[in-house]
Design a protein that fits this description.
The protein is an alpha/beta fold and 247 residues long. It contains 9 helices and 8 strands.
């Protein structure tokens, strides 16, 4: 099974469920697992462990599927969404992506500059300003604490402090389902991230930072408006700050 097969399956779900297709992500993964198993049985690995093979496939392709789901709507907002691997692993980047990369780097003093471990980068192609970054995993336990760490590091620089950090997940283990009692994963989202969007048809106790996936694009649109306001304030900022720093 390849990612294109998973992509085709999602499009079939989209035809069936329309805008609510995302709510059936768990069922999609169940169906995909069956297809994956049939393909795997034709050429099993030496270990003979299909579960291990499926987990690797699912983990690797979840962010690709999320990117596929949001791509067109992000473009309609005048923004671009890219796989972070495009700037992480490419040596000779085109000018636009090189600017995006520089706007996301986190500095570690004598230990150099490094990119945060995120899956999707959403930015303004006109200014190269990064609006937000997204981590997307099947369950929170796979990366939620690490995502909280990167949010804190981005806050340490004025250049990156405005970047929102989100988590998009089917939340298959139900970590985000309830407000109380609060799980460790939900606590991290509520306190350390800018929010999480859940692809589920299970009843979710929503909050300002834990929402159903359908709210993602609306919130992204609000970020754009906020970004415009920030730029307006920056134009009004008194000159002389850099001169004071140099002196």
């Amino acid at each position: 099974m390849k990612f294109k097969d998973l992509q085709v399956m999602y499009e079939e779900y989209k035809e069936k469920y329309g805008k609510d297709a995302y709510k059936h992500m768990s069922n999609l993964l169940i169906d995909a697992k069956e297809v994956h198993k049939r393909d795997w049985e034709k050429n099993p690995t030496k270990s003979g462990d299909h579960e291990q093979s499926w987990r690797a496939f699912k983990g690797k392709n979840m962010q690709k599927l999320i990117l596929h789901i949001i791509f067109s709507e992000v473009e309609e907002l005048g923004l671009r969404a890219i796989d972070s691997d495009k700037i992480e692993r490419t040596k000779n980047l085109p000018f636009e992506l090189d600017k995006v990369k520089r706007n996301l780097l986190i500095h570690y003093g004598e230990f150099g500059s490094h990119l945060p471990d995120v899956d999707i980068i959403i930015y303004d192609p006109n200014s190269y300003n990064i609006i937000c970054v997204v981590s997307s995993k099947v369950t929170l336990r796979e990366r939620i604490a690490q995502t909280g760490y990167w949010k804190l590091k981005l806050l340490q620089s004025e250049v990156t402090s405005h970047i929102k950090v989100y988590f998009i997940t089917p939340d298959e283990d139900g970590t985000l389902t309830r407000k109380k009692p609060t799980s460790k994963g939900r606590a991290i989202v509520e306190e350390d991230l800018d929010g999480s969007y859940v692809l589920t048809n299970i009843v979710l106790e929503e909050s300002d930072r834990v929402k159903l996936f359908e709210h993602f694009i609306d919130d992204l649109q609000k970020l754009i408006l906020n970004d415009i306001k920030i730029k307006s304030k920056m134009k009004e900022k008194p000159k002389g700050d850099i001169e004071k720093f140099i002196d």
